[in-house]
Amino acid sequence: MVTTAPVPPGEQPIRIAEEMRTSYLTYAMSVIVARALPDVRDGLKPVQRRIMYAMHDMGIRPGSQFRKSARIAGEVLGKFHPHGEGSVYDALVRMAQDFSMRYPLIGGQGNFGSIDGDPPAAMRYTEARLAAIADELLADIDQNTVDFVTTFDDSLTEPTVLPARLPNMLVNGASGIAVGMATNIPPHNLGEICDALVHLIDNPDTATERLMRFVKGPDFPTGAKVRGRKGIVDTYTTGRGRIIMEADTEFEETRNNREQIIVTSLPYQVNKATLIERIAALAREKKIDGISDIRDESDRRGMRIVIELRRDAQPRVVLNNLMRQTALRSSFNSIVLALVDGQPQVLPLRRCLELFIQHRQEVIRRRSEYQLQRARDRDHIVQGLLLALDRIDEVIEIIRSSADVEESRNNLMQRLDLSEVQAQAILDMQLRRLAALERERLQNEHQELLQRIAELEALLGDPEKILSEIKSETRELKKSFNNPRRTVIFDEEVGEETPESLIPQEDAMITLSQRGYVKRVPPNTFRQQNRGGKGVRGMTTREGDAILDLVVVDTHSTLFFFTNRGRVYPLRAFQIPGDASRTSRGVLLSNLLPLQRNEQVQAMLLIANPNDDYPLLLATLKGQIKSLKTGELTNIRPSGLIVMNLASDDELVSVAQVGDAKDAMMVSERGQAIRFAIDDLTPRSRTAGGVRGIRLIGDDRVIFMGVVTTNSQLLVVSQRGYGKMTATSSYRSTGRGGQGVRTFQLTEKSGPLAAARIVNDPENQEMLIISALAQVVRISTEDVRETGRIAQGVILWKERGSDDQVASIAIFQETDRNGEAAPPANGHRRNGRASTNGHEPETQIDDEDGQEDEVDE
């Protein structure tokens, strides 16, 4: 049984949950109203308002002498804000930083911190005074324009808000974290805000879209640029938005022909020192490749961060990676949350401007009422003085006949019908006021006061005149303090990062093995050798595997993979994992493409633009051939696309682009070749089969199909490494479907043909010979002798063992980044032999007699 203790007299029990709820809400509202959020009228938090009022009260104004920050902080702490010197000094420092506020409200002298994150000096070392623009916040504060309340100890009074001729909340922005809410208001250009205010006064029903013609977007003190307008539109229409900021960068070429990225401004609130450390760490960890050095060359003339690149780096790719992985691209998540009549509200742009105009209307009304009362009071006194001057003899007699001042005042009030104020003014009047000139001055003052009273009464009686006064003050404010916009706004949105924007654009060699292993390596992985070379290991393969195809492409190119089952799959070159090692096996293509069971890739093809709709030729193992338009290869599904209908015992073996060629050639394993006109082939649909291209005898099969151009040559290589060049003009064009003519003299020593290719420019092209055991020989096609059709040729590759043989060959022409032909990867040719930058080429294996093994026709 639970018993409760008796309650002492004068006390009553409370529930702990209710007390906690009430206390927390009280604390939350205190933070929201009295600490973290700005007032929509003057854009200041309480501590900022108290600092400015205290400095104004101390006489530390624009043009006055600087005073120690410690003295200012002490004044604010002792009179208005008893929350610790740190809170006061931190707020004072921020209001003096030109990289934190678009229009600093305090002028500082000394170390007030830097954009590198350096802390300000202690308050005993720095000095401050109000900036000129701060006067616009405090203007007319002594004319009953705002309410005052008692301070925390009831000893003094302080303003609840400043008169604020300056639309400070939008101009300087604000940030703060309250309880359960936060504000993050971006700064703006003063001239644009003033123009929008004037337009809204003239057109009260104007839409936000119209106001955005004046207010282009945020104008950050650090400059930089804003990418896209969506975040700006969201902020101005809803009060919330995500604004993307980017640093200002440019490319610069050095004397040693290297490129540099120069950063001249940073996004708002980005720490420069931290950014440089981040970039250096990414470069050191190889997360961003291509950076050789980074240094800060900033000085008083401006910011300059130099990011030096390596010779082989691509500046645009490096910059894209920097934007993606560092604060060079940042987001400003705006929340325009401010206090409206003591309540936090999220405000769109138009509402912010309307509330500021309402505040200025109230300020001008109260100021006018105050000035009107002062003018009336003064005119009342002036009228009394004029009356006294008109009856000066009587006034003198009254004063002389009175016993004391009190009696003089009362006699004046009774005999001249004056008020107490007028009577006192007459008693206080100096004798010099009896001069004729002084009388004229009083009469002029009376007329001016009457005119001023009439103007103020007219102003108070006509709201349009009050609005006109606001417009006049706003235009004058713009004229006095406006400066050019610093932040540039680009309409282009920052889209999703595309892989190609982050991948260097460079040549890559793609190899594909018969078992479906694919690999990407730089073209210079294999050094040029003489023909007949032993070769180097190109990749580690499983037993029985061999290189099927090899192509040199750009990393941004799209490769089309044609399979033995007549399907095609697209794959970007950079999607193939790169590997610096030439001996690695690579990755299974089935891990990159959704290949079906028993489906193998037979050909890789680089098609520059499939939409151009030019013809492709497809050939099968059984001698079928088909013409297909490249337009059929657009919009390929992830599951692939059927490009040829095949018989159950047939397979696709070769694919070729037609280009300007007129004829096509097909070569069989038994050394037969046929040439026929491409015009004989009618383009067919994707799902159609082919027509007979060559008639095969026995178990012969097609190993190659290609197109013939002017002055081209047919290169063939046998399984035992014999090869030759033969001019394609040696093959007359016949009708398709024939047996063709002999193109290679097959012997037991040479073995059947392993591969064939059409070579268009032997002097500027190179060849890779790949064996079944993945040995790779790289030679110039110039080293391959040109012979007749049925010659056996010369030894191009020397087998290492009885189990190895030629599996495939590849022809390529390496290009530089400008699209021009580049020299061989290992230097120039010298006396017919390959030069390897001053080193001897790899060991060559010649025939036993030391002579070329050659069989003439």
Automatic annotation (TrEMBL):
Task: Give the record's keywords alphabetically.
Answer: ATP-binding, Coiled coil, DNA-binding, Isomerase, Nucleotide-binding, Topoisomerase
The UniProt entry's GO CC annotations, sorted and at most eight, read: chromosome; cytoplasm; DNA topoisomerase type II (double strand cut, ATP-hydrolyzing) complex
Which positions fall inside the Topo IIA-type catalytic domain?
Answer: 37-502
Q: Short name of one Pfam family for this protein?
A: DNA_gyraseA_C
What is the name of this protein? DNA topoisomerase (ATP-hydrolyzing)
Q: Does the keyword DNA-binding apply?
A: yes
Organism name: Geodia barretti (Barrett's horny sponge)
Lineage top rank: taxon: Eukaryota
EC code: 5.6.2.2
Acidic residues composition-biased segments: 843-857
Region described as Disordered:
814-857
Instruction: Note the coiled coil stretches, chain numbering.
Output: 432-459
Q: Name one GO molecular function term.
A: ATP binding
Q: Which InterPro entries match?
A: GyrA (IPR005743), GyrA/parC_rep (IPR006691), Gyrase/topoIV_suA_C (IPR035516), Topo_IIA-like_dom_sf (IPR013760), Topo_IIA_A/C_ab (IPR013758), Topo_IIA_A_a_sf (IPR013757), Topo_IIA_dom_A (IPR002205), Type_II_DNA_Topoisomerases (IPR050220)
- GO annotations under biological process? DNA topological change
What family is reported? Belongs to the type II topoisomerase GyrA/ParC subunit family.
Q: Where is the active site?
A: Y125
Q: Which reaction does it catalyse?
A: ATP-dependent breakage, passage and rejoining of double-stranded DNA
